[in-house]
Specification:
273 residues; alpha+beta; Multidrug efflux transporter AcrB TolC docking domain, DN and DC subdomains; 40% helix
Amino acid sequence: MGNSFQYHAFWLRDSALIALMYDLSGYHEFARQVIDFFAKWQQPDGNFVSQGGQFDGWGQTLWIYGQHYQITHDRAFAEKVKTQLEDIAVLRDVQYGQSLDYPTVDVKVDRERAGIIGPDMKEVSKALVPATWSSRFVNLNFWADPNSGVAYQVQVQIPQRLMTSLEDVGNLPVLQHKPKDPEKKLKDVTLRNIAQITEGTAMGEYERYNMQRLIKVRANIYGDDLAGAARQVHRAIAELGPPPPGVTVAVRGQVVPMQEMLDGLSRGLALAG
């Protein structure tokens, strides 16, 4: 997997975590490509082994298969729930509670071309991070005030007003540092010479409830009380049928304390009677 300028070995364990990273970042197609490659390493007895003596590949493979299915199918089922709720007349402003399609700038490095020209991925990352965030994430640098002894971070960051388009990203210089070969003549390389830069989208935020990932669909009520709207919501969800394996649907918000209060009141009245 890869080419002459890349690492040759393939590890199921490490690749499972990389595929999960892609899924959690919203790059489901990249995750699928990694997972599809797992089938190559299945043995005649059904086990998955990519390296001699690595016998945890079977569990890691099944784990990432399940994770990928859950992550991709919970979004699809959430779309169905949202569409179903939009048909309820008393609901307004039906929307997701998270940004599921946050705008991104995707930089896809041609590693073979980069290997020929010179820069490696570390140098590409060092060019991108100060331009999109801050150098403190790749190169910690502190200055200590001689009078107070207080240490301050010193960082490099390109002003946002200078990074306004894909063209600006492509013009970033990729600095090469070759201390082991100082005589080698290095070429001036910009990011556009070794990478494809496009606009994309990614999951803006993942929320959890009791450690379980969730997607929130929320709405306001118009022309009805909370109990009446809640009954219509429960009915709409029931009409969708059972969710995919590993996916659950729960109605939260003010509906839950209202139902608990009414249940307690009804039990109290029953005991009093």
